[in-house]
Design brief:
The structure is a single chain. Helix 4 runs antiparallel to helix 5, helix 6 packs antiparallel against helix 14 and helix 10 runs antiparallel to helix 11. By secondary structure, this protein is mostly helical. It has a single domain, classed as Growth Hormone, Chain: A (Up-down Bundle). The two termini are 28 Å apart. It is 78% helix and 0% strand.
Length: 366
């Protein structure tokens, strides 16, 4: 919840940061790009931390860093400090998101894993839909942009209390694989391309609506909130309705609907952009499927996947920030569609490898 809030609130803040520090959108984009680059290091740092400290201690450390991220925004007074802060907060957000996935992998039975992943990622959708509303309400009330990030400290306190009481102690429980690299480069590339498309859609939606559709922050906020609402709702629906035998249909169907609504949004319907949130079930279902196909490597593989995702996000935000002042947001906003096309091609290659190479284990009966 904390990671998703801090992650998704950065997009709606981009226009405000640009005006506050009197910098261009390209310079403001470095706030995201540097965060994604640092996230690669922060995420890979989880491997030695988990090996030596165990899951409970690492979770507590991440929560403290998330609290520091919220409070640290009040010390940002120049554009240079903004980029340093962006690198720090981006890395901590990535650690939090990765740790959530690792805890689900560690604590769930294989036959229920798809459902638990969908429930886990519901929080990303439902919490993220509040982010643009919170940002709009706080800014319109006259508070500084720092307050939008600082309110996350309240959640840190509650999470720390829960972790101390409920999370079991564990030391040296993190298993590493014999190889330092993922079993197939195809898998990190698939996840990276997909997440670049999904996050690019939401992160730059507010800027697209403000600059191309001439909306203000208050008018554009409900569109992004609806996106996250649909993302959370479809994941919740999947958690209760998914039959493991139909995973491929859910994956192909969700990505096809995303493409349809994204095209309709560019053709003139801002509401259609919100409906691209139906892509929600794709990530948790595919992650669960990968964990079944690679049962020995899933912990390290999860870290490598999320690190690859951060690297691709950095490139995506960099290209977007560079293209917006040159070509305009209406053209630059096609970048997520290009990444999704790459993800579709890699997805079908992965399906073919499953069928040809016998990667897929028998699907469990729920």
């Amino acid at each position: 919840m904390l990671s998703s809030y801090l992650d998704s609130v950065r997009g709606p803040l981009l226009p405000t940061l640009s005006r506050h520090f009197n910098i261009s959108y390209q310079e403001t984009g470095y706030f995201l790009v540097l965060g994604n680059f640092s996230a690669i290091f922060f995420t890979l740092l989880l491997i030695p931390l988990l090996r030596h400290w165990g899951e409970k201690r690492v979770t507590i450390l991440i929560l403290l860093l998330l609290g520091g991220s919220g409070l640290g925004s009040f010390g940002v007074s120049t554009s240079s400090l903004l980029w340093v802060y962006g690198a720090f907060v981006g890395g901590v957000i990535a650690m939090g998101g990765a740790m959530g996935n690792i805890l689900i992998l560690s604590g769930s039975e294989e036959r229920y894993r798809s459902k638990f992943f969908c429930l886990l990622h519901c929080f990303y959708g439902f919490v993220s839909l509040l982010s643009p509303l919170v940002a709009a309400r706080v800014l319109s009330a006259g508070f500084r942009w720092h307050t939008v990030l600082g309110v996350s400290v309240v959640g840190v306190v509650f999470c720390l209390i829960y972790v101390f009481k409920k999370l079991p102690d564990g030391y040296g429980t993190f298993e590493t694989v014999h190889s330092s690299y993922p079993p197939s480069i195809l898998i990190p590339c698939l996840f990276a391309a997909y997440v670049a498309a999904e996050v690019g859609t939401s992160m730059w939606m507010t800027t697209y609506l403000l600059e191309h559709r001439q909306m203000n922050v208050a008018e554009s906020a409900p569109y992004l909130s609806l996106f996250f609402l649909l993302m959370g709702f479809t994941r919740l629906l999947t958690a209760f309705c998914l039959n493991p035998l139909h995973e491929k249909s859910w994956l192909v169907g969700s990505i096809s609907l995303w493409a349809f609504f994204f095209l309709m949004g560019h053709l003139g319907s801002p509401l259609a952009l919100s409906f691209t949130g139906v892509i929600g079930p794709f990530f948790p279902i595919l992650l669960s499927r990968i964990s079944r196909n690679f049962p020995r490597e899933w912990r390290s593989l999860a870290v490598w996947l999320l690190s690859a995702v951060q690297g691709t996000l950095a490139m995506s935000h960099f290209f977007m920030a560079a293209l917006v002042p040159r070509l305009g947001i209406s053209v630059a906003y096609w970048v997520p569609f290009l990444f999704m096309l790459i993800a579709v091609m890699l997805l079908f290659v992965y399906f073919r490898k499953e069928n040809a190479g016998g990667l897929e284990k028998p699907l469990p009966t729920v």
